[in-house]
Amino acid sequence: MRDFWIAAAEARDRFEECIEELYEDIVHKEGVLEREEEEAKREAEEKKRHAEEETRKRQRRKQKKSSKTI
C-alpha cells in the first residue's frame, strides 16, 4: 500500500509541474500576442499616416496645376 501512496504523490507532483509549465506557456503566449497586436496597431497607424500624406501631396499637386492653368 505504501508503494501506491508514493506513486500517487509522484503522479501529483508531475501533474503540478505540467500545470505550471502550461501556465507559463499561456502567460508567454499572451505576452507575444499582446506585442503582435501592438505592432499591428502601429503598422496600421503608419499606413494611415502615409496614406494621409499621399492624399495631401496629391491635393497640393492638383492645386498647383490648377493655379498654373489660370
TrEMBL record:
Biased composition (Basic and acidic residues): 33-56
Region feature Disordered, mapped onto this chain: 33-70
Top-rank taxon, per record: Eukaryota
Compositionally biased spans, kind Basic residues: 57-70
Protein's UniProt name: Uncharacterized protein
Phylogenetic placement of the source organism: Eukaryota, Fungi, Dikarya, Ascomycota, Pezizomycotina
